[in-house]
């Protein structure tokens, strides 16, 4: 693999990484944001594997993206449910 | 108004980022600065493990790892102090529970494997512990309220196991006149393995318990909320 | 070059996270922002550990491993506190 | 560790320690509290006696505690400090007796006597302070210890009075602190020296030295109630009578005046102070205060208020004495430190007795009190005549020496001030005496006399003013005897003008 | 190799583990561990007293590869203060919590916090500092939320997040340092450091992160609600110790490790921020409605006082005078720590007895409890900086040195701060005097009142009149 090709590969990795981060940060839907954050974490693990840090990549995938993501996802699901409940009560309140 | 504020913040942070990028470039331009890698590799044979990352974590900078396990413990204690766990989800269907019966042992097995190879290949206590924790998460998702964890008393002992074994090893070496956490070379490998095993169990338990998200019910019945 | 590219990405992630942390109000958003900030720092550490021909420096790797666990612990505690707040305001 | 190094500290501790224990005493065990109080007062008196004898013989006493490198807490005894220590100790003993009687059934006595003792410890500390740092320390402690005494009654008035008192004295403390630190930054740590210690470096530091003097004077002047910094004094009249007595005669006001004397003589040195034009400043302020206080006193109907303005006026005699260059005026100022103390405390004790026994708080209610309470009124008369300056009472001696000193120094305007002030004194005291002795009793008073004894009021309240009135007479009659206040002031003046 | 250093971290840590595993005996074990920790800290201090400084390599690996613990006069002094406060807080806590449950949650977290604190004060490695900071931050936030009220949880959640932001910023600085210098050890780093944009930026990042944790103006916004809503023993520890710990790190970096990088204008900026903190914090304390909020704002002001020392220390050449000023800084920090702990503990008792801590409605409650009122008065004396407290001596030296170095404007700040402090302290005390009935005895509940009183008393009497040994402890340790 030539140096130029490798650089393009690196660029793609990095740009995607930053793109995922931005998407996770600005996504309007919280649950979607968490999903994107998990994707970001997994992608980060991939980048780290590229940087010859397999131990850390493994840990990031399992702990950072995996368990951290799972925790956030549970919270996001609860938040979404709460919003739905609130929305219903609000709607009812307006009707009444 | 809010929009304006966020734009101003954005501008400031952009400036900050550019500054930091410039500094980073300056730092990198100064040439390959010194690093600890060579020393770390040089010391590797005496540590009893051949995976350099494990060597750093458990031997060179074992004290950091000890405190880090303390952080994990503190987080769980904090979570427990906030209230009791909510009941889990409704019992899973047949298909899901079948899958669970398959996935959980697989996760545990992989965890054990990662723990074992951590000495010479990528892996180690944290990754293994994470998989154990993941097994707990899966079980709770499948409807097991306790995430497969034992009763409160056992849980308490399990979550402190990692730090406890670590610090006791440290004190033992101190008592032997070696200095805190200075493993005798002959024992090094086995001491590290023992610490890692305890840490794996503790990490797994703690992460699963953190996912459960409150102190277990049995305790709540005794104590009540605050 | 490689180091600058990846290290620079770390700095950018840090800045993005910082921006989002300051701008967004909801807890979950702030946590995502903090985690991305942290990832930026970790990423910088991993990037400087990688030196072309030489084997990568294991010390920053270990630091990052520690950092990841700390970050997830803090996230878990923050989420639990957030849930406690939700429960209390929901119960009222 | 010897007597020489321990005695000053022992004198401070002899009231500090009982004070601390009194806080812990249960409210109802008044005997234990009384024993602690009296034991402290008597032990202190004995210790001071030893010190007087020693200083007279030329002994030096010094306790030195290093707080930090270059910062020593120094307690030492020279003739001037002995004068003030003796005054405080004697009057504390008397006031303690009075206060035990006065507060017999009132609440929170442990707190009161605890702070009372701390207050005296601070005053004695001020007297013995051997350098500016130590002076500032005890000066601030005095503020802290007197605040609860002023606020003691707990009524809204008391709280308000205490707040005003605190605002003034705290600001004064800060000014004093800045001045003291500035001075120390220039000179380094130096102890008070008879004749002053700034003479040597006055050359190019005139500006700063004047500024520092103004800071110090402002800080001290607030406690000494020099116009226009006197606003707190009439307000703090809400305190119980023994506190007023102590505040006015011994502790707070005196501490300020004493501080001015210290700064003029033992920091700047009177010669330097004169050359920098500081004495003129002080003299003008003091004179203004003397006249202003007296004029205000004329218009007060509240007895304690009238006495308070009288204090404003009288204390400035001390500063006036210090502002005239010449040993005789110095003697006059110094001796007035003692004389004003014993006279004013007599007057306050009597005012307390009238209030306590007959419920009389105002001058206009004092008709006939002389017949009803002859001993008290006699004591009051002695104090009042002394204040006016009638011989042979102590106050006459002060004014005589001040006047002589003014003539010696060619400061004839001072005579004018003295004459005017004496007239005004007469103007606000004589009507009281007339009412007390020559007007008939009103019917409103309780007919029944206290059943306990044959005296007009209980002993603990009666004897203190009688004793201090006696002291006023003795100090005037025996002014030439050895160890009289006058002789002692002359000793100080001799040492200051070496 | 000195065993005492590792033990100073391990002993409270083990105590925390035992208290976790055996919740029913948490209190007894906790008190036992507290006493043991105090003894170990005494051992460390004795070592520093005799040898000037202590150093221990952990894991048998010398720096830069391994991690070292180190104690000099500064860390020993703060360790001692922490031990004293922690012991007091522990005894107080054993009589404070009403429900057994809160008590059980308190002890493990509390001992972990203490371990983190000792670890932080002894740390000699930039990354190790990060880990101790995180342990400290997490335990502190969790303890602060123990009250369980919505306000407490919300405030401490914010504290947790802000703390994380601070540590991430700090860690970025560490990463920059490692990029350029390849070491994390403080001693080695201070030898290798060269002034330049990298070192300066690293210092700025680390300082910003730590300033956030130390609540340095204008980054103090999170502190008052977090400290005011925590349970009293926790507030005491947070205000007296946790905030000071972050400030200790700033000192360490500015005066020790990064000293060559620091410029007069940077130090002047810190002084400015300190001045603003003094005035703003005191002003807000004066306006505070609640006693604990008042105490929390006064903490903001006190961190400001400590910052005022930085420009003066920077201006002075090494020598006896600078050493004096440095010791004065430590003396002030210790006095404030002890006094603030006493004040918060007392405020907790007032709150418990009255059911609230609104200052305007406190009339009489203060009078029911003479010992507690006295504690507030003593602590107030130290906070104002009146004699004979340690902060008076500290202030005297600070002002002298401000005059001598021509930076007289700091004196104005101190004077204003002093008057404001007097105003807010006496605003509380004036409520103590009213027409309530007389209390029968001085102490009503020894287990909680006496520790508070002793802490406040130490800040006034001991540190003010007998601070001379501190000079030896720090002088021999080389100080900065």
Automatic annotation (TrEMBL), chain A:
The keyword Oxidoreductase does not apply. InterPro entries: MrpA_C/MbhD. The chain crosses the membrane at residues 6-26, 33-51, 57-76. Pfam families: MbhD. Its main location: membrane. Residues 16-79 form the MrpA C-terminal/MbhD domain. GO terms for cellular component: plasma membrane. It is found in: Cell membrane. It is a multi-pass membrane protein. Keywords: Cell membrane, Membrane, Transmembrane, Transmembrane helix. The keyword Cell membrane applies. This is DUF4040 domain-containing protein. It comes from Thiorhodococcus minor. The lineage of its organism: Bacteria, Pseudomonadati, Pseudomonadota, Gammaproteobacteria, Chromatiales.
Automatic annotation (TrEMBL), chain D:
GO terms for cellular component: plasma membrane. InterPro entries: CPA3_Na-H_Antiporter_D, ND/Mrp_TM, Proton_antipo_N. Keywords: Cell membrane, Membrane, Transmembrane, Transmembrane helix. The keyword Chloroplast does not apply. Its main location: membrane. Residues 129-422 form the NADH:quinone oxidoreductase/Mrp antiporter transmembrane domain. It is found in: Cell membrane; Membrane. Coiled coil: none annotated. Residues 72-113 form the NADH-Ubiquinone oxidoreductase (complex I) chain 5 N-terminal domain. The chain crosses the membrane at residues 6-24, 36-56, 76-100, 112-139, 165-188, 209-233, 245-264, 276-295, 315-338, 378-401, 413-437, 458-481. It is a multi-pass membrane protein. Belongs to the CPA3 antiporters (TC 2.A.63) subunit D family. This is Monovalent cation/H+ antiporter subunit D family protein. It comes from Thiorhodococcus minor. The lineage of its organism: Bacteria, Pseudomonadati, Pseudomonadota, Gammaproteobacteria, Chromatiales.
UniProtKB/TrEMBL annotation, chain E:
The keyword Membrane applies. Residues 123-420 form the NADH:quinone oxidoreductase/Mrp antiporter transmembrane domain. The chain crosses the membrane at residues 6-22, 29-49, 61-94, 106-123, 129-147, 159-178, 198-222, 234-255, 261-281, 293-313, 325-350, 371-388, 408-429, 450-467. One of its GO terms (cellular component) is plasma membrane. It is found in: Cell membrane; Membrane. One of its GO terms (biological process) is ATP synthesis coupled electron transport. One of its GO terms (molecular function) is NADH dehydrogenase (ubiquinone) activity. Keywords: Cell membrane, Membrane, Transmembrane, Transmembrane helix. Belongs to the CPA3 antiporters (TC 2.A.63) subunit D family. This is Oxidoreductase. It comes from Thiorhodococcus minor.
């Amino acid at each position: 693999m030539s140096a130029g090709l490798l650089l393009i590969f690196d660029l793609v990795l990095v740009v995607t990484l930053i793109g995922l981060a931005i998407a996770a940060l600005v996504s309007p839907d919280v649950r979607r944001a968490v999903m994107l954050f998990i994707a970001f974490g997994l992608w980060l693990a991939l980048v780290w594997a590229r940087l010859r840090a397999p131990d850390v990549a493994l840990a990031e995938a399992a702990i950072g993206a995996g368990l951290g993501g799972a925790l956030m996802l549970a919270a996001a699901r609860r938040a979404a449910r709460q919003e739905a409940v609130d929305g219903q009560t609000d709607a009812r309140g307006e009707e009444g | 108004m809010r929009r304006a504020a966020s734009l101003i913040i954005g501008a400031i942070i952009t400036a900050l980022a550019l500054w930091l990028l410039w500094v980073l470039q300056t730092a990198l331009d100064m040439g390959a600065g010194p690093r600890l890698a060579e020393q770390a590799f040089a010391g590797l044979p005496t540590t009893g493990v051949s995976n350099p990352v494990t060597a750093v974590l458990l031997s060179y900078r074992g004290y950091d790892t000890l405190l880090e396990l303390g952080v994990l413990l503190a987080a769980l204690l904090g979570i427990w102090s906030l209230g009791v766990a909510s009941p889990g989800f409704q019992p899973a269907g047949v298909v899901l529970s079948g899958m669970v019966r398959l996935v959980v042992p697989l996760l545990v097995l992989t965890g054990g494997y990662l723990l074992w190879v951590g000495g010479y290949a990528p892996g180690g206590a944290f990754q293994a512990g994470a998989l154990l924790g993941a097994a707990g998460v899966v079980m709770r998702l499948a409807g097991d309220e306790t995430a497969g964890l034992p009763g409160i008393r056992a849980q308490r002992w399990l979550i402190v196991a990692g730090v406890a074994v670590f610090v006791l090893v440290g004190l033992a070496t101190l008592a032997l006149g070696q200095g805190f956490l200075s493993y005798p070379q002959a024992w090094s490998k086995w001491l590290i393995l023992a610490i890692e095993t305890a840490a794996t169990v503790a990490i797994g338990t703690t992460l699963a318990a953190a996912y459960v998200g409150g102190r277990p019910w049995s305790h709540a019945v005794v104590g009540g909320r605050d | 070059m490689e180091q600058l590219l990846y290290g620079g990405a770390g700095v950018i992630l840090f800045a993005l996270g910082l921006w989002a942390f300051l701008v967004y109000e909801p807890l979950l958003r702030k946590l995502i922002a903090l985690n991305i900030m942290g990832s930026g720092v970790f990423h910088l550490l991993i990037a400087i550990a990688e030196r072309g021909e030489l084997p990568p420096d294991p010390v920053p790797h270990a630091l990052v491993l520690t950092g990841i666990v700390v970050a997830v612990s803090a996230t878990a505690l923050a989420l639990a506190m957030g849930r406690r707040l939700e429960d209390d305001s929901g119960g009222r | 560790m010897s007597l020489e190094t321990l005695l000053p500290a022992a004198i401070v501790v002899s009231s500090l320690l009982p004070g601390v224990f009194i806080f812990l005493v249960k409210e109802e065990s008044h005997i234990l509290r009384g024993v602690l109080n009296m034991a402290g007062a008597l032990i202190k008196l004995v210790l001071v006696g030893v010190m007087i004898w020693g200083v007279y013989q030329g002994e030096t006493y010094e306790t030195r505690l290093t707080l930090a490198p270059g910062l020593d807490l120094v307690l030492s005894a020279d003739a001037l400090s002995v004068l003030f220590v003796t005054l405080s100790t004697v009057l504390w003993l008397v006031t303690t007796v009075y206060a035990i009687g006065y507060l017999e059934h009132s609440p929170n006595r442990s707190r009161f006597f605890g702070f009372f003792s701390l207050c005296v410890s601070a005053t004695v500390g001020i007297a013995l302070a051997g350098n500016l740092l130590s002076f500032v320390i005890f000066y601030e402690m005095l503020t802290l210890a007197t605040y609860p005494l002023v606020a003691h009654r707990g009524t809204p008035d008391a709280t308000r009075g205490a707040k005003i008192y605190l605002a003034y004295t705290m600001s004064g403390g800060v000014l004093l602190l800045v001045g003291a630190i500035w001075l120390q930054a220039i000179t380094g740590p130096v102890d008070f020296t008879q004749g002053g210690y700034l003479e040597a470096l006055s050359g190019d530091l005139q500006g700063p030295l004047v500024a520092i003097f103004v800071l110090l004077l402002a800080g001290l002047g607030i406690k000494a109630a020099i116009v226009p910094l006197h606003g707190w004094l009439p307000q703090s009249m809400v305190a119980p009578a023994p506190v007023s007595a102590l505040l006015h005669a011994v502790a707070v006001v005196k501490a300020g005046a004493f501080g001015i004397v210290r700064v003029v003589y033992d920091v700047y040195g009177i010669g330097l102070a004169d050359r920098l034009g500081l004495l003129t400043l002080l003299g003008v302020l003091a004179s203004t205060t003397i006249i202003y206080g007296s004029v205000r006193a004329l218009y007060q109907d509240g007895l304690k208020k009238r006495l308070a303005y009288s204090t404003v006026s009288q204390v400035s005699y001390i500063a006036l004495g210090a502002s005239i260059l010449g040993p005789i005026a110095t003697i006059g100022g110094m001796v007035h430190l003692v004389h004003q103390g014993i006279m004013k405390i007599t007057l306050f004790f009597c005012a307390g007795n009238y209030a306590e026994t007959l419920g009389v708080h105002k001058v206009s209610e004092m008709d006939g009190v002389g017949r009803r309470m002859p001993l008290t009124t006699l004591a009051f008369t002695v104090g009042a005549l002394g204040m006016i300056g009638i011989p042979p009472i102590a106050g006459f001696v002060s004014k005589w020496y001040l006047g002589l000193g003014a003539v010696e120094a060619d400061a004839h305007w001072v005579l004018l001030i003295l004459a005017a002030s004496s007239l005004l004194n007469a103007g606000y005291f004589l009507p009281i005496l007339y009412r007390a002795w020559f007007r008939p009793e009103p019917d409103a008073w309780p007919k029944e006399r206290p059943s306990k004894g044959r005296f007009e009021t209980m002993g603990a309240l009666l004897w203190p003013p009688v004793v201090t009135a006696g002291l006023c007479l003795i100090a005037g009659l025996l002014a030439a005897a050895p160890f009289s206040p006058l002789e002692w002031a002359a000793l100080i003046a001799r040492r200051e003008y070496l | 190799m000195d065993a005492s250093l590792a033990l100073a971290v391990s002993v409270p840590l083990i105590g925390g583990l035992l208290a976790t595993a055996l919740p029913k005996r948490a209190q007894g074990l906790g008190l036992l561990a507290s006493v043991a920790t105090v003894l170990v800290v005494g051992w460390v201090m004795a070592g520093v007293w005799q040898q000037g400084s202590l150093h221990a390599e952990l894991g048998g690996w010398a720096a830069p590869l391994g991690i070292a613990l180190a104690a000099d006069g500064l860390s020993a002094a703060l360790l001692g203060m922490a031990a004293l406060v922690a012991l007091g807080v522990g005894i107080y806590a054993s009589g404070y919590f009403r429900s057994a449950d809160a008590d059980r949650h308190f002890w493990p977290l509390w001992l972990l916090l203490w371990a983190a604190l000792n670890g932080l004060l002894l740390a000699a490695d930039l990354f190790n500092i990060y880990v101790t900071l995180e342990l400290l931050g997490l335990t502190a936030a969790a303890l602060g939320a123990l009250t369980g009220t919505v306000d407490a949880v919300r405030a401490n959640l914010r504290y947790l997040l802000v703390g994380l932001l601070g540590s991430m910023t700090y860690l970025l600085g560490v990463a920059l340092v490692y990029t350029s210098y390849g070491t994390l050890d403080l001693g080695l780093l201070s030898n290798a450091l060269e002034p330049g944009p990298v070192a300066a930026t690293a210092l700025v990042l680390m300082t910003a992160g730590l300033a956030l944790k130390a609540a340095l103006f204008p980054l103090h916004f999170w502190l008052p609600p977090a400290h005011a809503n925590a349970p009293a023993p926790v507030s005491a520890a947070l205000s007296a110790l946790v905030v000071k710990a972050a400030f200790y790190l700033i000192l360490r970096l500015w005066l020790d490790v990064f000293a060559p990088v620091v410029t007069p204008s940077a130090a002047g900026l810190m002084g400015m921020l300190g001045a603003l903190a003094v005035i703003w914090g005191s002003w807000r304390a004066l306006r505070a409605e609640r006693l604990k909020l008042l105490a929390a704002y006064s903490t903001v002001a006190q961190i400001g006082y400590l910052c005022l020392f930085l420009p003066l220390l920077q201006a002075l050449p090494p020598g006896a005078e600078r050493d004096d000023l440095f010791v004065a800084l430590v003396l002030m920090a210790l006095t404030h720590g002890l006094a603030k702990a006493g004040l918060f503990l007392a405020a907790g008792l007032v709150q418990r007895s009255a059911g609230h801590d609104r200052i305007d409605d406190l009339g009489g409650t203060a009078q029911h409890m003479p010992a507690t009122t006295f504690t507030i008065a003593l602590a107030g004396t130290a906070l104002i900086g009146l004699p004979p407290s340690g902060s008076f001596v500290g202030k005297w030296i600070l002002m002298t040195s401000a005059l001598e170095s021509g930076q007289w404007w700091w004196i104005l700040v101190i004077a204003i701060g002093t008057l404001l402090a007097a105003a807010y302290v006496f605003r509380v005390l004036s409520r103590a005097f009213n027409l309530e009935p007389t209390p029968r005895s001085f102490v009503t509940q020894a287990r909680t009142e006496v520790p508070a009183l002793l802490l406040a008393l130490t800040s006034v009497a001991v540190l003010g009149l007998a601070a001379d040994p501190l000079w030896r402890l720090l002088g021999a340790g080389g100080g900065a």
